[in-house]
Amino acid sequence: MRVWRRLTLGLVLVLCVALSAAVLAVGCGEESKDDGAQNGNGGEQKKVTIVFTAAGGVLQEAMTKAWIEPFMAAHPNIEVIQDEPNENAKIKAMVEAGNVTWDVVDNGNDFGIGETESLCEEIDPKVVPMDELQPDLFKTTGHRVPCFVYATVVGYRTDKFGDQKPTSFVDFFDLEKFPGKRGSLNWPAHGLIEMALIADGVAPDQLYPLDLDRAFKKLDTIKDQMVWWTTGAQSEQLLADGEVSMTTTFNGRVNNIKKAGAPAEIMWDQFFMLADYFVIPKGTKHLKEAMELVAWCTSAEHSAELSKYIAYGPPNVNAVQKVGPTVEANLPTAHAENAVPFDDIWWSENLSTVYDRWQKWIRE
Amino acid sequence: MDSGVAQVQQPKLPSVGGAGKTLLKGLARTRVNGWALLLLPGCLFIVVFFFAPLVNMVWRSLTDPGPSNYATFAETGTYARVLWVTIRTALLVTVASLILGYPYAYMMIKAGGKLRLALVGLVLLPFWSSILVRTYAWTVLLQDTGVINSVLMKLGLISDSLPLMRNDLGVTIGMTQILLPMMVFPIYAVMRRIDADLLPAAEGLGARPSRAFVRVFMPLSMPGVFAGSLLVFVVSLGFYITPALLGSPSNTMFSVIVAHTIQQQVDFGLGSALGVILLVVTLVLLWIGSRVVRLGDVFGYSSEQ
């Protein structure tokens, strides 16, 4: 009996160790890379399922109605299922583990370039209309495709400055003419550094490489009036409650609080036009279908569909005029001539240096 | 919990490393029977979801791209500063919880049945609602245009709004509310076992009530104070969203930096190294704590049976 008891304990221990080893092998190893067998023949009959991932919420609902559902209707052999939220780290983990379960991902402007370029499949310019997607504005090195256009804007309270209203980044830094606290995201690659340089006299097309000494010196002048936010929802709340008189935020956020009745407005006279990008994680088992979905959503025909459901513009230059006039005023693409270029690629190469300096500065 | 607490009464404190030795001896002596199989699911869970990832993380911090990750930590002053802020925040919250929690626990001892139940409910009730909701609720109360400031201004008591959040104060208020139960219950559990006749006995021997409390009751309740403090402190070290929403950037906690490194910079090696550092610091602090309080009492297991 006693022997049996010992055996039981031993068994438990051995199982634990063995399992631990097994988990580690799968976790670290590359060997599980190509278990997906090619079921090449008979592809026309068989329904292929691909996974589309975005940030979730109202944006992904809009994408579903604008792109995913029509795409499936037009491609009866492709089924698109969805996951959320998109996370840079998850894509990297999938690619490294050789187990890619996302086929098309809507990502922010910080992925698919620089060091993370190698985590994404190269986009086929024969399938996807790359040259219609304003490559000078939405830079890519061929591993990401702009899918919708949004803006980082200055949102301001219309009830705080009398009959004045801010019309440039200079005004954001002018605490006498436009009193009150200022909000901004606690993250260097958000536009505030660029705003400081422009307010200090740098021409918008001469921003990069950023002169950090000059930028932080300018930022020092408003530092004690800054309120830092962490989430987009927080920026909405700051402006809606009047905690700040001006804040950097995303154009959709100001629209939300305007709809809710707050006296707020977007300063369209100077803003950053940015895009979200589609990437196809490297090692997808459905490269062809994924590429087709990317091509569909960015085509001149469908790029503007999203604007029917949410205040984001189309990146495809041939789709801009397809947006209905009623929604146009809210779209960044309608104010394109006032947009300041934001260089994602410079940021992807310099983020860790600037992040370090930013962290130091912000807590000084 | 109860069996652990019962032993708190025994005055002897373990020597350094004593708990570990006793545990090993205990294992060697333990006779295992078929019931040990019940341990299997728990063991498997811990191995698969905790131990294996942990080993992976340590490995990664040393190999991706190399041990230089730790040099980055040492060279970049920011990380050490954030680590210090994290420890300081945890200390502040521990002290605040203790100041609020000790009298509260004492009140629970003194209160009769129904009142005690109400007191337990009051401290537990917020525990059951989402941390995020509670944190946003604090924002509504504490911000410049918030309830507290606007009421004070309408009453004419202040002309400029008080800085109640986006500083240490806001972070401490928000985190203390969340962690208070973890302070109150260990203290209460210990206080409940203090012989109620000791205080009258001390007074009978001529001590004033306040003196009897300080000299007799408080020393006996100390194991609960240590246990609660250690628990609150350790849990505070890992806080994330509350300091981000109620504090300023200078209140950024270490876990936020880890998240940024993994999520935005996609630097798994450095992120792993930072995770390992936080873990090691926590273990060192726990070890220091273990010289004063038996960890078994804090985390609800006991090394002696």
Architecture overview:
With 364 residues, chain A is of the alpha/beta class. Chain A has eleven helices and ten strands. In chain A, strands 1, 2, 3, 4, 5, 6, 7, 8, 9 and 10 form a ten-stranded mixed β-sheet that branches. Chain A is globular and about 65 Å long. Residues 1-17 of chain B have low confidence and may be disordered. The interface between A and B is large, with 44 and 44 residues.
Portion in beta strands of chain B: under 5%
Task: Give the CA-based shape of chain A.
Answer: globular
Tally of contiguous helical segments of chain A? 11
Q: Specify the overall morphology of chain B.
A: globular
Question: Which runs of chain B of at least 5 residues are low in confidence (pLDDT < 50)?
Answer: 1-17
Range of helix content of chain A: 25-40%
Relative helix content of chain B: over 70%
Terminal CA distance of chain B reads 13 Å
- Total strands of chain A: 10
Assembly form of the protein: heterodimer
Spatial extent as radius of gyration of chain A: 24 Å
Radius of gyration of chain B: 23 Å
Q: What is the ordering of alpha helices and beta strands of chain B?
A: HHHHHHHHHHHHHHH
The chain-level structural class of chain A is alpha/beta
**What composes the largest sheet of chain A?**
10 strands, mixed
Mean pLDDT across residues of chain A = 88
